[in-house]
Design goal:
By secondary structure, this protein is α+β, with helices and mostly antiparallel strands. Helices cover about 50% and strands about 20% of the residues. It contains 13 helices and 18 strands. A six-stranded antiparallel beta sheet has the order 8-7-6-11-10-9. A hairpin with a 4-residue loop joins strand 4 and strand 5. It is flat, with a radius of gyration of 35 Å. The relative contact order is 0.06.
Length: about 575
């Protein structure tokens, strides 16, 4: 009777659990529509915002290149300089004007600009160089009127020229005016190699007018928002609006997504959720029935055996007589587990050591792409500027870095790390000539000290990345000293610079007792250096501060351990 009551209690509990699961699923179904739509909107917004931000950076980069070219013409172009100093309307003056037109024409193949402009007020000379051929009289007259207007804004502006919309930039110099214009259609098309015409990507002005590819301007009757999505009706159609401001003007890059597409995706999600839920509920009913008939009693027997094992009875065995095939295999597996538990303990310990080794290697590999990308970017800039000799030198130094960062050793001699630091500063000096100075103070006795690779190099690279200012000398110091305690010698590495130092927000984070967190993926270079060094020397201490009358300072203390000689 008592056993029957126990079985009845289990049945009642199983029924209660089933009802609770059913009630929970009904509640989830009722809330699913709103929750799924909100999550879908947030996901679409985040993905679209990231894409729009990428396109915005590409557009900003292209506009900056065109603007930089105009300024470089005023500084370096000999034909432009001749126009300023030659007698107006002379043969030499017209020759310089002709060759400047040729320079503009050759530059059009490099930049996205549709054309370049020059206006010389002294004799009312106007030069327009463009890619397409033809009279373009209306376009020429419009541009001449704009560039000759001294009160016209000098930033990038959207203007209508000859029935089309263009981005126009003018530069007013003391004796002449330069300009460039690029069609909105070409600018938006340049953000990707094959951008579909049916995707609603626009340039938006502060007065909420949208200029897109091959379409008339659209008025956006809503506030411009850049930190969250906005739902609005445009042309009788409900739209999701995602915007990203351009850097050097008051324009925004705007992406419009029809709300009907989002609703269609949400309807599909709800349908799939309902079907999955229904199938799961059917499986639950079958599972409960099977558990009641075939599993509860065998599980009770297994539980009793497990209790004996937890008490230390490793000789306990379960009888396999009269059981289902599945439970017979389970019992045999349990009996085998008891017999081999001691061996498993040893295997688990060895597996733990392997996981620690893999974690150390993984942390090291996370940091190497950071160096490679910076070095390759510098080499690319040198080849683009046709400094091939410096590019070859950069690539040679890069090979040393790759060989060093991809080495499999957990520790390296301090002298090797310092050599890589010098090598990196030499490479960076190519990009920032006359801006970097490295001072290393290290007694010879510590040159064979064991350190993790990239320990110092990572902080030096961050200093170069965030602190270099062209035309200003940046000093970087690496001072290595030691101090003794009762049982060991400690190395102290002090890395400091003459830059602006850590920001208050960054310094507050670095000095937080909980930093670094294994799950933290931001500032991965600093995090990985700390974790890798502490994996080898758990007593390692890091200290971050701003040096008085200087920049950032990092202090590292860890036990001194000489590097073993491979030849020995």
């Amino acid at each position: 009777m008592k056993k029957k009551m126990q079985r009845l209690s289990i049945n009642t509990y199983s029924l209660f659990l089933l009802l609770a699961v059913l009630s929970l699923f009904f509640i989830l179904i009722s809330l699913n529509g709103r929750t799924a739509l909100r999550l879908l909107l947030n996901r679409i917004y985040r993905n679209t915002r990231d894409t729009v931000e990428l396109y915005q950076k590409q557009i900003d980069s292209e506009l900056d290149r065109i603007e930089t070219y105009l300024y470089m013409v005023t500084i370096e172009n000999a034909n432009y300089s001749s126009l300023l100093y030659q007698e107006a309307n002379s043969t030499a003056w017209y020759s310089s004007l002709y060759h400047l037109d040729r320079d503009f024409l050759s530059s059009l193949s490099i930049y996205t600009a549709d054309g370049f402009l020059l206006y010389y007020p002294e004799n009312d000379t106007f030069l327009m160089t463009r890619q397409s051929r033809g009279s373009g009289i209306d376009l020429r007259n419009s541009l001449r009127e704009i560039i000759s207007n001294e009160e016209y804004p000098t930033g990038w502006e959207i203007v209508e020229l000859d029935g089309s919309w263009y981005m126009l930039r003018t530069i007013h110099m003391p004796t002449a005016r330069l300009g460039a214009y690029v069609s909105v259609d070409a600018l938006l098309g340049s953000v990707t190699n094959a951008y579909p015409d049916d995707v609603a990507l626009y340039l938006t002005t502060p007065d909420n007018r949208l200029f897109g590819r091959k379409s008339a301007p659209i008025s956006l009757h809503t506030e411009i928002l850049t930190d969250s999505y906005k739902i609005s009706h445009i042309g009788g159609q409900k739209m999701l609006i995602v915007q990203q401001p351009l850097t050097n003007n008051d324009l925004y890059l705007t992406r419009l997504i029809p709300y009907s597409e989002i609703q269609a995706m949400n309807t599909s999600l709800i349908r799939d959720f309902v079907l999955t839920t229904g199938a799961f509920l059917v499986l639950c009913l079958l599972f409960v029935y099977f558990v009641k008939k075939r599993i509860i009693q065998p599980v009770a027997n297994l539980t009793k055996a497990l209790e004996k094992v937890s008490e230390g009875d490793l000789e306990n065995q379960i009888s396999t007589t009269g059981q289902l095939i599945e439970y017979e295999k389970m019992s045999e597996a349990f009996n085998g587990m008891v017999r081999e538990i001691r061996n498993l303990k040893i295997d688990i310990y060895e597996e733990k050591l392997q996981r620690q080794e893999l974690e150390i290697q993984y942390l090291k590999q996370q940091i190497t792409p950071h160096f490679m990308i910076n070095c390759l970017n510098t080499a690319y800039q040198l080849t683009e500027a046709e400094h091939l000799d410096l590019a070859r030198s950069m690539l040679t130094d890069l090979s040393r870095h790759l060989r060093y960062t991809l080495s499999s050793g957990l520790v390296v001699p301090l002298c090797e790390e310092l050599q890589m630091v010098k090598n990196y500063v030499d490479m960076s000096g190519i990009r920032y000539p006359g801006c970097l100075a490295l001072f290393i103070g290290c007694p010879d006795i510590f040159l064979q000290a064991s350190v993790v690779p990239l320990l110092i190099l990572n902080f030096i690279e961050n200093t170069v990345k965030y602190e270099v200012v062209m035309g200003k000398m940046l000093e970087m110091h690496v001072d290595i000293t030691s101090h003794e305690t009762e049982d060991r010698i400690w190395l102290h590495i002090c890395i400091w610079d003459t830059g602006k130092g850590f920001s208050e927000k960054m310094l507050l984070r670095l000095t937080d007792p909980t930093y670094p967190d294994h799950a933290d993926i931001s500032h991965i270079g600093i995090t990985n250096v700390i974790l890798r060094l502490r994996s080898i020397f758990p007593e390692t201490r890091f200290s971050f501060s701003n040096r008085t009358h200087a920049g950032a300072q990092i202090d590292i203390d860890f036990p001194y351990q000489p590097q073993e000689d491979p030849a020995g």
